[in-house]
Amino acid sequence: MLDRLASSQEDLESEELREATQASGCTRISDCDDRQVVRVTGTLRTVTLRPRAGVPALEAELFDGTAPLDVVWLGRRSIVGIEPGRKLIASGRISLSHGRRVLFNPKYELRPLGQE
After folding, report:
1. Which of 89, 111, 110 is CA-nearest to residue 25?
2. Which DSSP symbol is given to 54?
3. Nearest alpha carbon to residue 62 among 38, 84, 79
4. What string of DSSP letters covers 72-102?
5. What does each of the 116 residues of the chain score in pLDDT, given as a tens digit?
6. Which of 29, 42, 48, 109 is close enough to 67 for a disulfide, judged by CB 3.0 to 4.6 Å?
7. 3-state DSSP call for residue 20?
């Protein structure tokens, strides 16, 4: 109990996300390797529109309490429901780009609002 009182809000949120990842049966992002097919879950921290090679690309940072993962939808300017603070489950093949884990055009499930 004393540890929880001394912990920062960010630490508490990270712990909750790690527990939710374990309960869902998904792979922890920190355990994902290059070229591995995974199913991950977490909360979207940022969502931005950033063109790649002249093609629109919607990028989001997914965080599960262990590590961040960049999720990129090529050819999309927006997707309904993809917004900061939203929880989702994404699956696909991980790649490494500039030292960061990236998941391109994943299959995804938005978690229902109110159950977050």
Report:
1. 89
2. T
3. 84
4. EEET-S--TT--TT-EEEEEEEEEEETTEEE
5. 445 555 577 776 777 777 777 777 889 999 999 999 999 999 999 999 998 888 999 999 999 989 999 999 999 999 999 999 999 999 999 999 889 999 999 999 998 876 54
6. 29
7. helix
Instruction: Note whether 60 and 101 are within 8 A (CB).
Output: no
Euclidean distance between CA atoms 57 and 29, whole angstroms: 22
Reading the block at residue 48, the tokens are 């931005």
Q: Pseudo-torsion of CA 35, 24, 43, 80, nearest 10°? A: 90
Of the candidates 38, 19, 43, the one whose C-alpha atom is nearest the C-alpha of residue 27 is: 38
